[in-house]
Amino acid sequence: MKLTRRQALRAGATVAVAGAAIELPLWLEGRGAQAAQLDSTTIPQFVTPLYVLPAMPASAVGAKSDGYVIAAKPFRQQILPKPFPSTPVFGFGAAGHPGSFHAPAHTVEASVNRQVRVVWANQLVNAAGGYVPHILPVDPTLHWANPAGGTAGRDSVPEFTKTPGPYTGPVPLVVHLHGAHVYQDSDGYPEAWYLPHASNIPKGYAVSGSRYAQYAAEAKHRFGVTWGKGMAQYEYGNDQRATALWFHDHSLGMTRLNVRAGLLGMYILRGGGTDLKAGVLPGPAPRRGEKPGTRHYEIPLVIQDPSFSTDGRQYLPSVNTFSPGPYIPTSDIPPIWNELYYGNTITVNGSTWPNLNVEPRRYRFRVLNGCAVRPLTLKVVSNPKASVPAKAALPIWVIGSDGGFLPAPVETPVKSGGEQHGLPVLPSERYDIIVDFTGVKPGTHLYLTNEGAAATVGTTGSIMRFTVVPLKSKDTSVPPQHLKLPGYTPPGAAAKTRRVSFSEQISGFQLTQISKYMCGTVDSDGVNTPLSWDDPVTEKPAYGSTEMWEVWNFSPEGAPAVSHVFHMHLVQFQVVDRRPIGATSGSAPGAWERGPKDSCNAPTGYITRVRAHFDRRGSYVWHCHFLDHEDNAMMRPMQVV
Ligand SMILES: [Cu+2]
């Protein structure tokens, strides 16, 4: 994926304004002081050992199900290498296990067809039990949770008489298990959020979103649980293929902030006929109750791209850096939200640019692009400062996509036009990969790099380092090129074709600015109807049906638009093809996209076609998984009827 001209201009604009922030201009100080931004080139790289995310402790392991109590809490974490200061984060951990709190979270290890129940507790409170405000600037002018609006004004676009500053009240939370096959009560609907059960919730605030009570009642009826204050209990049937899912906050209009703050984690599903037998793939992964000192050959890699202030806090602009204003209420431009913000560092599992000592053998990595908007293109190289596209030192073998194994292993980089193209991983996509270090001399350094759009060689172009150390035990896993993967049968013929759209809404006041992003429908003439989050539901697939969805990504007239990431809840879909709008034929998806998917690139000017089977009734959503877009209206309800 190439950066479009306007994306490049915008990325440049962000950097320019972020750079200017070092001098703390008056408009910034006046709108809530932020310490100067940390120059990411001053951060030493590859000095911190990769944090191998352990398995999340369970609270109850029964005959047929596992129980968890997972809380979201505020704490500090050493993300930058010492002696840089630690960083305030919001992160998950198991209640009663203080050592398990981390951002990103420790991994939930689950088994196919074995139920998992999680109490998700919002404990974003201080030691005295009072709520803590958000650590990142919350724009209160979007269509968002809006707890201050009370029960009448929650989940709406509040009205203002003058441009407001950031919302500093209690923080809503609702957790979505991305890629999971679930009932609606357990999907983490954006309007099913809840505040912490804090001692000082201001009078008149809504303590939960407009769907919370309904889903609490349904959970009680369906699986007999009562949700306490400041929490929800969800049930995951895990009746789907073995794969790597991930959980993250999904609160209406503030997902970008809660995920950046650290409220995300991996959820790995194993076993059954859609998994390989133990020992075939490199392992073990971290497991509950494992022996101390266990060496891991399967490791999750959660990649993010924060920026920092010199005081260690995470940096995110507290003003709309794309627009000089005027803002809401005298224009339609949100004052704090940004249409896109790329951070200037890369973290893996919560540390900037870590190092992993690897033996000369095969490793399985479960990769998640946990960035809000940054596309990644992965490669393993010997020189991280080489100009791109660089020559790969080792291949990355892809064996699985978002929802399970591929039909067959795929070797990347893919060679075309004399160049080596790395593995593209967009926000929210997961890939199951194998890197074979067999035969590499101990002492060798190799690097996982990012050649994606907006990457800067040496900073956001680097992800982590591998240092090869002597072999400690024999590798008995099957080489990736010889793997026989479990079969994947895509959904069958579609009974119906549905046309949906992504587009941008240009400000009515400043014609070069975007005021929000829209989802919509497309009629038989190819005409787009952009719709708001609260317009009546238009996507109503029939229960038990298979549909082809055409995702039309429209450019606004006269300007190239950005790519979007198409994501549907509930289902794993097949990416069928992508064709330019107006063309009669298209191109097949990348070989690495030919397994089950729940998120995929929907490039601008193209129709991306996906096929899905809808086998559960209920209320779900589809949206762009660039979180900065999703939070400003690029999301729509979907009702399986
Ligand atoms: Cu988008």
Question: TL;DR?
Answer:
With 641 residues, the chain is mainly beta.
Notes on the protein architecture:
Residues 533-640 form the Plastocyanin-like domain. This is Multicopper oxidase CueO. Monomer. By secondary structure, the protein is mainly beta. It folds into three domains: 5-10 and 318-482, Cupredoxins -  blue copper proteins (Immunoglobulin-like, Sandwich); 43-288, Cupredoxins -  blue copper proteins (Immunoglobulin-like, Sandwich); 496-640, Immunoglobulin-like (Sandwich), CATH 2.60.40.420. 7% of the residues lie in helices and 32% in strands. It has six helices and 35 strands. The protein is globular, with a radius of gyration of 23 Å. The structure holds copper (II) ion. Residues 517, 564, 624, 626, 629, 634 line the site of copper (II) ion.
